[in-house]
Design a protein that fits this description.
about 230 residues, mainly alpha, 2 domains, three-stranded antiparallel beta sheet, 3 strands, Eukaryotic translation initiation factor 3 subunit K, initiation factor, translation initiation factor activity
């Protein structure tokens, strides 16, 4: 399960910034930017700390760096399905992203996030593969594509017990061999000779028997009979 709000990797000095008066100190920007760089390199996300950095940018717009803003949004995107991307986006001054290169970058990231949230996975990978700007935006985020694929696989496992390998290729943005390796070694699924991938039973994808019970007492039954008799009388 994703823990991008309060990750165990968070160092003590960041805890002090988030929970104390340091979160209003412009000098904390340097430490939070360095911490973001660490997140990008080590494949974990601290959305709480990153939002604190965005709030400091709001208070100190002269310190804002476009690349840091886009890295925060990309890291938030790796937490889908969750509201983290929207929470970060709403902390960016609209006037700052109204035009210029940052506007173009944020618009592209919003498109990518919308595709993920809308389960348009094939379109997402096509956008990533066919756009140089996208390649630049995710370049600093170590393991970005692997993180996205892991989240997609988790959602698939919640909804399906069986799915075709060809469909998974489209959803994961991989060729046949890479998809087979991903689902067998990474997810622990089984690929059959017929090209159907079997997903182990779990609490989400298991078919559950639904029981509908209605309690009708004698008084209710007698009223129905009496009304029926009155209508025919």
């Amino acid at each position: 399960m994703l823990n991008g709000e309060d990750p165990p990797e968070r160092p003590e000095y960041v805890v002090n910034i988030i929970n104390g008066l340091e979160r209003y100190n412009p000098e904390a920007v340097v430490n939070l930017e360095a911490y973001l760089q660490e997140q990008c390199e080590q494949k974990y996300t601290d959305c709480n700390a990153n939002r604190t950095l965005l709030k400091l940018y709001q208070l100190n717009p002269d310190r804002m760096k476009d690349e840091v803003v886009t890295n925060i949004l990309v890291k938030a995107m790796t937490q889908f399905p969750s509201p983290q991307f929207s929470l970060a986006l709403h902390l960016i001054n609209p006037s700052v992203i109204a035009q210029g290169e940052l506007h173009e970058a944020v618009t592209k990231l919003r498109t990518l996030n919308s595709q993920l949230e809308g389960a348009q996975y094939a379109r997402f990978w096509n956008t990533i593969d066919g756009d140089d700007l996208c390649a630049d935006l995710i370049a600093d985020i170590s393991g970005f594509e692997d993180l996205i694929r892991a989240n997609i696989a988790n959602l698939i496992a919640q909804a399906f017990r069986e799915v075709s390998l060809s469909q998974l290729e489209s959803w994961l943005g991989l060729n046949t061999d890479a998809t087979t390796k991903f689902v067998t070694e990474g997810a622990g699924w089984t690929v059959g000779d017929n090209g159907v991938v079997t997903i182990p039973k779990n609490a989400e994808n298991e078919a559950k028997k639904s029981e509908i019970r209605e309690d009708v007492n004698i008084d209710m039954f007698s009223r129905v009979l009496r009304r029926s008799w009155e209508e025919t009388a």
